[in-house]
Amino acid sequence: MSIRYLTAQLAQQIDEELMNAVGAFSLDQLMELAGLACAQTLSTVYSKEKYPKVLVCCGPGNQGGDGLVAARHLGMFGYKPTIYMPKPGSKDIYRRLQKQCINMDILIVPPAASAEELPRLLQSSNLILDAIFGFSFKPPVRAPFDDALKLISASGLPIVSVDIPSGWDVELGNAEGVGLNPDVLISLTAPKVGAKYFKGRHFLGGRFVPKAMQEKFQLNLPEYPGFDQIVELPRNYRM
Description:
By secondary structure, the chain is an alpha/beta fold. Helix 2 packs across helix 3 (62-77) and helix 5 (114-123) packs parallel to helix 6. Helix content is 36%, strand content 15%. The chain has a single domain (8-238), classed as 3-Layer(aba) Sandwich (Rossmann fold), CATH 3.40.50.
């Protein structure tokens, strides 16, 4: 039985259940587990010896929080991350995640300087972690991210996208042609419908989903190897 691909509505429902009295997870816990899976995926595909400088591009929502956690773990892994976040999240959790990165001497580009700094940041980076938009995103792409996506796409750098490539409709994929075209995708919890259009290396990070919830939503998730937080999905999962 093949893995289930989630609509935006179903993904939201599962997230809510994970964090209500049934699942009993906090948002902090889920971000920590998701960010760790993202960092592990990036380090699995791109070694720190060849790709040490990672530009972590974060949006203002939960996706950006995952990116901040991933940046911290990448720093722990020996990479040299820089955080580009032109529109930071306003909740307390984002301020704490930013402080954790600052405590590790990870550079966070000030929002006011982001537009001018992005071309220089791209030139000095080896790799991009795309954590701008999540499964709740609906086109069109608005400022300041419209210009940012164009610059990121034009950079020619390898891209690892979190959950769904930024600019993609979560169910229709890159139908409007304005989204990123990453080399690697790390889906969280379960792949989203739009990921069926993705052709690169595809990983899953969702080892936190309880068996009862997997069965309730008929997710048909694959087994995770050993103690890894990620599993690579073979080509037949994309059909």
